[in-house]
């Protein structure tokens, strides 16, 4: 199984799938292709929250503002899972949740060993190629064929792939998601992401809300609810989301707008 | 085969897929994940129009404004199909189209019998869990594993699932789509949904247009056409959509805007 | 394998998939369902850029402003690939890239030979059907079942399908993408499409940029870069995209807005 995640919209992911399907008949599952553009931190957050619900798989991740620069292409083995994507931190936050024993192995991809991504049978080749890969679409030319090759090769034999060279995991880029500070009745954090419902997801651990019926947010008292329906339609609430963090929400509405918050904004919650 | 429909956007459906794929290798097919948010009626309409074109399958439906409240999670067997989703009416309108003999069987899901949705192999468990399911993401924690279990168990053996208890179908919530009134040359209905093209789909049966070359809509005469191309590009027309209802459309444009109509607005059509 | 491409949004593609899956258990892969509405040229461009990366497959394409008119439904065999869609030109630009020897074979689809798209097992039939197909949804009623039948029949036996009649490829509609004019240091072209990143993709061949460090665009000098990261975040650049054409881009921003360009706008590039 190969999962795919990117900020590509359409139809670029379809080109990646074509390349993969030349090399393997693995099941393909889309995680998302509308991650916030070139926002490594947001993608890292969502991958950390979604991929641990998968059975062992190869996960192809392309959120890559540095495409074409000298940033490396990485393969990271985490337990029975393998992550494939750019060395910009996006692969790191999810890895410890995929590896029961904390053991990670990393490899750098040698683009010159990947081989052609165009099927020979059609007789067509792209007009301009200055090398083994385009400078602007490594998803298609580097990461997709690597994910397919990793899947076909299998976890135990990654060392046998000509295109992979071991590298120290600690030498790869990490994307640390900021931690909130909880001090008694006061939690200071920030909005990590806003989901498609408009829920403003913070980095404050859900445990902060235990035993509280209301909290102050920006000087106003907001009820704590177990469910959206704990408040009337259109009303604000503070709740623990499915990822165990405090969310600022509106029942059947958008929390980000009602609280006036965007990704990266600071949030202070005070117990009352 | 398991189909998936929700109002989740991304990437939440991908978490549901991960949970499902831990339990089954069924084919997964997305129906839509951008149904109008928490609009049970719109989802019920689209499911009624789309699912009857499928071969026998398990259909996972999560449009669930009451998530975390005491509304039940349901499994409804309809002929060779099975529907899984919340007891809020969304599953009911499509059911008679899936069951040739009208025989439906319903079950309530016992969340405590579903088991873990996190793979044991990774060693990771979510930080905060007050019970068998989160309060805000039953798609992942209740409906997805149930759909997988139903698929694996098979139609004939649903009674053997510990998590299911039979319930009278008539005791479940129905979502009745409003009917139009046709009185000779006058049809009074409403806009049920607006599709992605901007076509305003009403509940007036297409048969009302038989033999008519034009109708009055809101005091203006509009041509009846068999095809969008029956009128010039940008012109309005009234036609019978692919679901057999009267649509108010614009050739290569948006009917909702040209007619000034939104979902739920009343529509009066008069033959001339 | 059957790929699907359309301008349908959701959930209409799901109805096509249901019809296909009644007839075949082929793998289904979505190319895109958000092509610009009824824009045959844009769809033709994207298909030409994406489908050549696929292994042999059946490609279902429905961008069909003439649905319900007397335009034909086509099947075009191109090498080991088969294209299925309306005779409006959308299938033609990609075909030569799929057929190594340039040999194409075309067939017209007889809608009366397709058979029912509703499963008999449910006992349900749509209320209004004036014939073998709706007038507004040939994707579901004509193209989807044809793609499934073509896949099941196989390349070598297309002539055996009752629903197909051979037709001269040259008698089908072509959609010629406009060519740019390159005259020494001056290239005159137009914006073919704008992708989801906002990159304005022109029809000027990438080779025009070889050896140039900057070009004049609309009177302003813009750097030529190999990668987005060749300029600072938010800055404009001219580069060769993954499809080998000149793109007008912004590093981590929208090129279309920064250059004030829309699809179809003329573009003049001058070497300096």
UniProtKB/TrEMBL annotation, chains A, B, C:
NAD found in the keyword field: no
Domain S-adenosyl-l-methionine hydroxide adenosyltransferase C-terminal intervals: 189-267
Domain S-adenosyl-l-methionine hydroxide adenosyltransferase N-terminal per the UniProt entry, residue ranges: 2-153
InterPro entries linked to this entry: SAM_HAT_C, SAM_HAT_N, SAM_OH_AdoTrfase, SAM_OH_AdoTrfase_C_sf, SAM_OH_AdoTrfase_N_sf
Keyword tags: S-adenosyl-L-methionine
A Pfam family recorded for this sequence: SAM_HAT_N
Domain of life: Archaea
Family: Belongs to the SAM hydrolase / SAM-dependent halogenase family.
Database matches in PANTHER family: CHLORINASE MJ1651 (PTHR35092)
Name of the protein in question: NAD operon protein
Source organism of this protein record: Natronobacterium texcoconense
């Amino acid at each position: 199984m190969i999962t795919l995640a990117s900020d590509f919209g359409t139809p670029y992911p379809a080109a990646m799938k074509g390349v993969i399907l030349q090399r393997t008949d693995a099941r393909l599952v889309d995680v998302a292709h509308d991650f916030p553009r070139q926002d490594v931190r947001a993608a890292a957050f969502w991958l950390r929250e979604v991929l641990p619900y998968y059975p062992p798989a190869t996960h192809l991740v392309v959120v890559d503002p540095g495409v074409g620069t000298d940033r490396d292409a990485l393969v990271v083995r985490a337990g029975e899972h393998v992550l494939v994507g750019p060395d910009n931190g996006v692969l790191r936050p999810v890895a410890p949740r995929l590896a029961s024993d904390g053991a990670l192995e990393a490899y750098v991809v040698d683009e010159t060993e990947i081989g052609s991504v165009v099927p020979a049978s059609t007789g067509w080749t792209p007009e301009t190629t200055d090398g083994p890969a385009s400078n602007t679409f490594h998803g298609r030319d580097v990461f997709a064929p690597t994910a397919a090759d990793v899947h076909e090769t299998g976890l135990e034999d990654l060392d046998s792939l000509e295109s992979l060279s071991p590298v120290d995991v600690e030498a790869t880029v990490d994307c640390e998601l900021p931690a909130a500070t909880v001090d008694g009745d006061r939690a200071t954090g920030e909005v990590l992401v806003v989901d498609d419902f408009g829920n403003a997801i913070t980095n404050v651990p859900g445990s902060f809300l235990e035993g509280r019926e209301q909290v102050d947010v920006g000087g106003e008292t907001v009820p704590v609810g177990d469910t959206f329906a704990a408040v009337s339609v259109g009303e604000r609430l503070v709740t623990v989301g499915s990822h165990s963090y405090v969310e600022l929400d509106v029942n059947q509405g958008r929390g980000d707008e009602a609280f006036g918050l965007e990704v990266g904004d600071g949030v202070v919650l005070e117990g009352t």
